[in-house]
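Morning!

This is the sequence you dropped in the shared folder:
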Amino acid sequence: MADGPAPKRRREEEEAAPGPGAPFPLSSVRLRRILRDSAREKAAFVHGQVAGPSGEPTDAVLILEKTPFQEEKIEELLRKHTKLELQMRNDIYSTYRLYPPPELSEIKATVVYPATEKHLQKYLRQEVHLIRETWEDYKNITLPFIQSQSFSIQWVYNILEKKAEADRIIHENPDPLNGFVLVPDFKWNQNQLEDLYLIALVHRRDVKSLRDLTAEHLPLLKNILQEGKEAVAKRFGVPGSQLRVYLHYQPSYFHLHVHFTALGYDAPGSSAERAHLLEDVVDNLLLDVGYYQKRALTFALRADEPLLKKFQEVGRV
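The structure's back. Tokens below.
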């Protein structure tokens, strides 16, 4: 599906590490190509290779992102820059190229290793097409396609079962039907609130996406909305009125989850063709218990995605 720079909660990026506690051999990476370079997102997506366990070249994806500025370090940055080059001056306006010292030049590196062809295609720049999916389309095209895929979401179950990231949990409602776990998304380094990003993962495993939701799920959705906002306010001091709480359709992985982002943050995947505000979802289900089994939903697909080809084969694109 069409994704952002480190789209949407992208936990499969962390699934396969070189070994427990072993750092990824970054200095040994052989650059193969730049999959995508985003000036707006200050991120580069790189295809590289490193020697595998038997010495064979093994693919990896590296996502390199400039971390947000921290207010308390701005003055230090201005005082300690190593070089300043004038680029342009016109009346009261001027631009410079500033070179900060290494300790103030942090770059976040997310590693997918070993990477599959699916990972490489996921981050490759592609043309994007809008799909208008009816309920019949979902039953006949999308759902069979989802069921045929083998993309692992074991990392989700690891979080829910406290096998991983237990120390990162911000809030949990343990109810097996109406409970969830709230954790920081990997796109947020937790050093500033401007790009706050958390994910609520539901405990139940029978709800894949927005399409599955009915009135049965209203208690779960209301719990996520109310308890999630309360937890964020208590832990980070951000009121609910400054949060964007939404679901993606289509999601990047098919286990129901809800995004919590700072309202002022232009988060990946928060565009109109993908984000559905949780409060609107609740209201829609109160109006019609089968709302999401009736209405058409719009989403974007990249040109190389197999699901797009399925829609093209039946003349829906």
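Headline: The longest strand covers residues 57-66.

More detail when I'm at my desk.
O.
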